[in-house]
Specification:
This protein is an all-alpha fold. The longest helix has about 80 residues.
């Protein structure tokens, strides 16, 4: 009878430990996925910002060239 009680208790403890470990693994996995998704979204935002910056830099060069050519034409007149 004592052995049956001990087996039930150790079985219950083992089940509790397994469920606790499973819970913590799920929590850790969800934290990993959340941080991974944040990293991917930040990477895509950085790419968008780079593209906008490159377009604005190209636009600045174009404006400079147009202004320079207008100034040269005005000086020749």
């Amino acid at each position: 009878m004592i052995k049956k009680i001990l087996k039930k208790e150790s079985g219950a403890i083992t089940l509790f430990v397994l469920l606790t470990m499973l819970f913590f693994l799920i929590v850790i996995f969800s934290m990993f996925m959340s941080s991974s998704n944040k990293y991917l979204s930040q990477t895509s935002e950085i790419d968008k910002i780079k593209e906008e910056y490159e377009q604005s830099v190209n636009n600045i060069d174009q404006i400079y060239n147009e202004t320079l050519s207008e100034n040269l034409l005005n000086k020749q007149k």
